[in-house]
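Hello Y.,

Per our agreement to keep a running log of every chain we model this quarter, I'm adding this entry. I've kept the format consistent with earlier entries: sequence first, then predicted structure.
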Amino acid sequence: MKLVSSDSTTKLDAPFREAAGALMHLMTSTRPDIAFAVGYVSRVMESPPAEHWIAVKRIFRYLQGAKSYGIRFSSGKDVDFQGYSDADWAGDLTDRKSTSGYLFKVTGGPISWGSKKQSSVSLSISEAAYIALSLAIQEGKWVHKLLCKILTAAGRATPMLQFFEDNQSCIKMTKNPVNHGRAKHIDIKYPGRDLRFPACLNTLGPESSETCKLLKESVTSSKLHHQSPWAHRNLTHQT
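Predicted structure for the entry above:
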């Protein structure tokens, strides 16, 4: 999904805001698979062009085809906590800003997710991934702390906070605080961001890589079915 802001003064005769609001409610409640797409179309709420309305209808058509899917949690005794982040580098065709995405899973099912446009232009994929990871760590620390309180009160063991990242340069920057020549500008633009998590930042495996891909691109029903067993399963009753 690649949309460009329009200078057209023609007013769109469609309930765009209402539709976008309904999609936002679905996304924040139970649909992490549409987080990127909904965030993208919601950037132009004032006088949206016709292309954005077409994109909104496409999201509804996707949901119609995937309405029998729901979030899945594993039924094991151990509780694990995993976080993922990624970025759509220079994905906005108007200002070339990137989009950050994050998702956190507990026992295999997503419990927290988000997609947010970055405030400045990233000069490299590594920089975009670094900023996305920063957002994910901020959210992850809070969610992990809350989860540990709940498990402690229930007399259960608390899980370690784990992050997964697919950009090797970003991982190296978080584990090595030395400012290399190509990365000095990142520390200058974003001072005070300490992302050194060497004990819990991991390289992605094949399944985790698919998780990160869904944080920065639109999803199709076939992709949800074949590539995302972590997020949804078919809930249609079978006899």
